[in-house]
Design a protein that fits this description.
By secondary structure, the chain is an alpha/beta fold. It has two domains: 219 residues, Uncharacterised protein PF07075, DUF1343 (Rossmann fold); 142 residues, Aspartate Aminotransferase, domain 1, CATH 3.90.1150. The strands form three sheets. It has a seven-stranded mixed beta sheet, with helices on both faces. Strands 10-12-11 form a three-stranded antiparallel beta sheet. The chain has a two-stranded antiparallel sheet with strand order 7-8. Helix 2 links the parallel strand 1 and strand 2.
Amino acid sequence: MVITGLEQISAKIPARLAGKRVGVLCHAPSITTGFIHISHLLAASRECRLTTVFGPQHGIFGQTQDNMIEWEGYFDEKLHIPVYSLYGISRKPTREMLAGIDALIVDLQDAGARLYTYIWTVKLCMEACSEAGIPVWILDRPNPIGLLGFDGPVLKEEFFTFVGGAPLPLCHRMTMAEMALLVRALYLPGCDLNVIPMLNWHRSSLYNSTGLPWVLPSPNLPTLYSTMVYPGSVLIEGLNLSEGRGTTTPFELFGAPWMNASKVARELKSRNLPGCTFREHDYIPVFHKYHGRLCHGIQIHVTDPELYKPVETALNIFEAIIKLSEPGALQFNNPPYEYEEHLMPFDILSGDEKMRLALINGSSLKAETDRWKSETEEFYRIFREVSLYPE
């Protein structure tokens, strides 16, 4: 069984944290194998004193369903401490929020996609703690889709936003601690960053092999399968397609009232894309895009995770829809999106404008995926410097 960073400090608090006032950045999956939440664990500890809780997007316990649904903090009557939102009025902790702590502990479950916002909340926390002279401790957890290969463009600096703040590919294979180490190496060398790595985890694995309980990392990633398709299907957020929000299988489903699902499904199956197949499946979203309207849809079925390429699959999906739909039917949404007022949503999700332009111009898909591979080779040099785990 994999032993997480939290599991290790539940057995023994590190000497440098003994007697300290600690804050914790956490959410619903921040639990031990015995299902004890980190906030309750630290509140009961005699070795340190929990004084503050911080929460990322979707809240401490996943209460905010959709994107851009902000939440604000409150006073926890049971723990008798403040809970601060980092997805509301503030996304970076203020001096006042940090005033009562000697160290910040981070225990967040990532999903394996660069645009998942939790690591960028961590980056802002690292900035704030560096400015305040407060050490940061990362309790590491598995990348649930580490088995999947690197995939997608590497984010360019001019497209940095709250859904991406370092040059990672869309499907990056890294853990939260490794990404934090990369952020420190590139941008915050003065951050006092401490890592409690996992034991018994290897990168070429899926979450279902860890022996750890699965808790939704966010409300629209209910299963490991939705997490596997997410690095590609999340690009649909920048399009006038439904990504299946408002159904029980978000990101595995995609569609629209105007899409010819049977033609698109046949086309995609004929391409023999590695590690997956496609099945026509109509649906009516109960919220979000096309709420209450019949969407002619398709479900992505991952048949071999070792071969599956989520971003390359998504690129083929979009190209097939363009090919088989009325001209202009598939549209790229305009800003704003996730606090960004000017850049195209699809571009900040994908990493730059080149994937969007390749689709608009009908360029070779192979040329586009070859570009990603070249960029990933450069990224891999940085990756090796911060890698903590074997394949």
